[in-house]
Amino acid sequence: MNIKPKKQLGQHFLNDAATAERIVSSLRAEGVHKVIEVGPGTGALTPLLLQNRRFDITFVEIDVEAATFLEKRYPDVHGKLVVADFLRYPLEEHFHEKIAVIGNFPYNISSQIFFKILEHRNMVQEVVGMLQKEVAERIAAPPGSKTYGITSVLLQAFYDIEYLFTVHEHVFVPPPKVKSGVIRLTRNQTDVLPCNEHLFIRLVKTAFNQRRKMMSNSLKSLLPAENKNHPLLSKRPEQLSVQDFVTLAQWLS
């Protein structure tokens, strides 16, 4: 059976055994038994995951044709394959323990996947994902980087993030027009931020919406009229660490 690429989701199928092995071997999942593969597609990672008896894998695939192909090619996925949209898949209903997530994430929805993971951060202990290189670099970017932004701060508040390696276009079918990057997110020790979390998120988003301005200008709508002299306000958003944003949120509260 031939599988047509899911162009509407920006999906490009990995077609290189060495790269697949490298991605799967990057999943450490220490202390975790349950693993979800998001969008297995034609199964580049699937047989390697099935071979690891330490993991209890759930495969979440939105495309019915791809799911049918997987069932025929890899009989061991029977009972483990769910035809569903991961973005709408109710993790809390199906998993009652810590989990890890792995996948070749469709370019067009990779950011949405990571925001879903962020919402379930107390469940998702580790993520190994391949996505568009620029997005991967942005998520892993440190303070001071030109690509450091909203997703960097929000995800790094709860995860230690590593950019692992770059994947070139020729190992995909069809080849994308951009390179891909593989990153690993590992849950850190922060259970709850020591500030108002809604204010923290609003602060980060407001600041980076005008990233070229100093914080004192980009945050005008949030600053108290009687006090606009916090030392962090003289910096630009990309110069602030996660802890700096927490400090500002505490001050604004």
Keywords:
10 helices, 9 strands, Helicase, Ruva Protein, domain 3, Rossmann fold, seven-stranded mixed beta sheet, 2 domains, alpha/beta, 253 residues, two-stranded antiparallel ribbon, elongated
Summary, kept brief:
The protein is built from 10 helices and 9 strands. The chain is of the alpha/beta class and 253 residues long.
Fold topology:
Layout: E1 13-14, H1 17-25, E2 34-38, H2 46-51, E3 56-61, H3 64-73, E4 81-83, H4 91-94, E5 99-104, H5 110-119, E6 124-132, H6 133-140, H7 150-156, E7 159-167, E8 172-173, E9 180-187, H8 197-208, H9 215-218, H10 242-252
Parallel strand pairs: 2-3, 2-5, 3-4, 5-6
Antiparallel strand pairs: 1-8, 6-9, 7-9
